[in-house]
Design a protein that fits this description.
The chain starts with 11 loop residues before the first helix and ends with a helix. Strand 7, helix 8 and strand 8 form a beta-alpha-beta unit. The longest helix has 21 residues. It is of the alpha/beta class. It folds into three domains: about 45 residues, no CATH class; about 120 residues, Aspartate Aminotransferase, domain 1; about 240 residues, Aspartate Aminotransferase, domain 2 (3-Layer(aba) Sandwich). The strands form four sheets. It has a seven-stranded mixed beta sheet with strand order 4-10-9-8-7-5-6, with helices on both faces. The protein has a three-stranded antiparallel beta sheet with strand order 11-14-13. Strands 1-2 form a two-stranded antiparallel sheet. The chain binds pyridoxal-5'-phosphate. Pyridoxal-5'-phosphate (PLP) binds next to helix 5.
Length: about 425
């Protein structure tokens, strides 16, 4: 069919696409005879022939707030302190190793569970930092970012009707994945202002139906970290109930003020029921590579891998090999990361001295919450959008991470300080001008 014959829009690519569909005689045609079943938004004359209605499994889920705010930042050319990624590159030695492998023929499928050298580098690191001997062959699996690992871990254990405890504000990928398995999330708000877990509430909500508790430490978006009292409370509950633990530890190397990261790997009795998930993207300033891993006891790893092989099968070879070399030769990178980001946190907060914001310094992650209640009574979502458009500074509203927004603190925005000092200084200037 000639492109010009279409009554509406005549983008060459779209018309080509439709033409192929029409030859295949797939259902759905517009008045002009164009087959538009697969892209009705391109054709106002669309009339479905077969009435197939897709009932969404996630009817309440829209586009993530991170994409929304980053999109808005790009549209308004705003400084983007919303989405959690650095505006500086990964270490040169790491980029060199990946380039080396990519240009020397290491471009075919690696093993499904990840390359040997990387799995063993992870188990060495876990032994070094947390004193745990995990087997690189049976307990470490390389994943497509932490996101895939979270998916596989949840899918491995949650069955229809199971309950999963999450703490609000909760990272936004947990609840949809639980819902896809037919499970139910039980949301417990962290106690403001320091966003600690209220273990009395947890004890009250844990039951025989509780299949999984998701612990995120250091915590996005609040920057809170779990302490020994949290571990003791979790242990006590674990002695009485048969739940698994999903430990989202993607910010494991970003903990401040001399505090230790309390990985589930440190505690054999908790580790035996845990999936511990981390992300190379966060640690090496390469979030776009989307490579992470899951450490779990052999029986849990086996189940995890059963799912991983059909979600992603494996993760790209040159990046895995490059990461392995870098981990083995530059352990100082992750050891120095707390100082690197603490300096950034302090620099950013230094820029805010004299502003009308209030805050508690972030205890971990590369996020800082700022309370704007002295400046505006507006709702956080509205204000984050308004400031992106008008002040050219993007942030993330915290209330979107709550199932019940009435439990959310009223006036908190999250700012990512994984940015060059010049960007942080400019952001400080804008915020101080208010
Ligand atoms: C708490 C938390 N978990 C998981 C992820 C996903 O990590 P990745 O990019 O490695 O998939 C993020 C990314 O922002 C995060 O903040």
């Amino acid at each position: 069919m000639a492109e010009a014959a279409h009554p509406n829009r005549a983008e060459a690519l779209i018309s080509k696409y439709f033409d192929i569909k029409s030859q295949l005689q797939l259902p759905g045609a517009c008045a002009s005879g164009w087959v538009c079943q697969y892209s009705p938004r391109f054709c106002s004359g669309y009339k479905p022939i077969v009435s197939l209605r897709l009932d969404s499994k996630l009817p309440d889920v829209g586009t993530t707030i991170f994409s929304v705010m980053s999109g808005l930042a790009a549209q308004h050319q705003a400084l983007n302190l919303s989405q959690g990624y650095p505006d500086f590159d990964g270490p040169e030695a790491l980029l060199d190793r990946v380039t080396h492998y990519m240009t020397h023929g290491f471009n075919q499928y690696p093993p499904m569970i990840g390359v040997d050298s990387l799995r063993h580098a992870v188990s060495d690191k876990v032994a070094d930092l947390y004193g745990a001997q995990v087997d690189g062959d049976t307990e470490v699996t390389i994943s497509a970012g932490a996101t895939e690992a979270l998916f596989c871990a949840i899918a491995a254990v949650v069955r229809p009707g199971d309950e999963v405890i999450v703490f609000d504000p909760a990272y936004d990928s947990y609840a949809p994945v639980v819902a896809l398995q037919g499970g139910h999330t039980i949301h417990i708000p962290l106690s403001a202002p320091d966003f600690q877990i209220d273990w009395n509430q947890v004890a009250a909500k844990v039951s025989d139906k509780t299949r999984l508790i998701i612990i995120n430490t250091p915590h996005n978006p609040t920057g809170a970290v779990c302490g020994e009292a949290d571990i003791a409370a979790l242990r006590e509950l674990a002695q009485k109930h048969n739940f698994y633990i999903l430990a989202d530890e993607v910010y494991e190397h970003i903990v401040f003020d001399g505090q230790a990261h309390l990985s589930m790997c440190r505690y054999p009795d908790l580790y035996e029921r845990s999936f511990v998930v981390s992300s190379f993207g966060k640690t090496y300033h390469v979030t776009g590579w989307k490579v992470g891993y899951c450490v779990a006891p052999p029986d849990l790893s086996a189940e995890f891998r059963r799912i991983h092989q059909f979600v992603n099968f494996t993760v790209n070879t040159p990046v895995q090999l490059g990461l392995a070399d870098f981990l083995n030769t530059h352990p100082q990178h992750h050891r120095q990361l707390p100082d690197f980001y603490q300096r950034k946190r302090d620099y950013f907060l230094g820029q805010l001295q004299g502003s009308k914001f209030t805050w508690q310094p972030s205890a971990g992650t590369y996020f800082q919450l700022l309370d704007y209640s002295a400046l505006s009574a507006a709702q956080d979502v509205e204000l984050a959008k308004r400031w992106t458009e008008q002040l050219k500074l993007a942030s993330i509203p915290v209330s979107v991470f709550y199932e019940d927004r009435s439990c959310a603190p009223k006036s908190l925005l999250r700012f990512c300080f994984a940015k060059d000092d010049a960007t942080l200084a400019r952001a400080g200037e804008i915020l101080c001008s208010l």
